[in-house]
Amino acid sequence: MRPSDLTAASWRKSSYSNQDGGACVEVSDDFDGVVPVRDSKAPQGPVLMFPATGWAAFVTGVKDGGLTPR
Questions:
Q1: Apex CA 68: angle with CA 26 and CA 30, to 5°?
Q2: How many domains does the chain have?
Q3: Which terminus of the chain, N or C, has fewer Cβ atoms within 10 Å?
C-alpha cells in the first residue's frame, strides 16, 4: 500500500487514549518507512505522516517519561 492511499489503511487508537475518547490519536502500521497519524475524533480530517524512525523515537520518549504534556 502506498502512503498516498489511506482509504484501505487499518487504524489503531493510542493506548494512552482515555475512556471518554478525548486526546486520542490513531496510527496505521500498514506502511513501510512512514507512520500516518490522525485525530480519532476527525477520521476524515488531515493525516500527518512521520518517518518511522522519528515516530519510534517519539514513542520511546513518551514511554520513558522524557516527553510530558503541558
A1: 25
A2: 1
A3: C
